[in-house]
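Now for a sample.
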Amino acid sequence: MEIKVGEVEDYFSKVGVVAFTLAESLKVGDTIHIKGHTTDITQVVESIQIDRKPVQQAQSKDSVGIKVKDRARKGDTIYRVEP
């Protein structure tokens, strides 16, 4: 099962980070799935940053940055994968 946690608002290619506002909570260790027109990334969240400061967990409405292993695009949907 997948729960929508947000949409990519920005992608920073030099550092490989997506920025978005959370609709649901997310923590380090969660598995995420980023899905879009040409994007399909599934990975474990290794780090979350709020205002460039690392955090272990973020809540709904927090603006976060997450390092991703592949290119994502503005408007791609981000899901938390539930076991």
Remarks:
- The chain has one domain: 2-81.
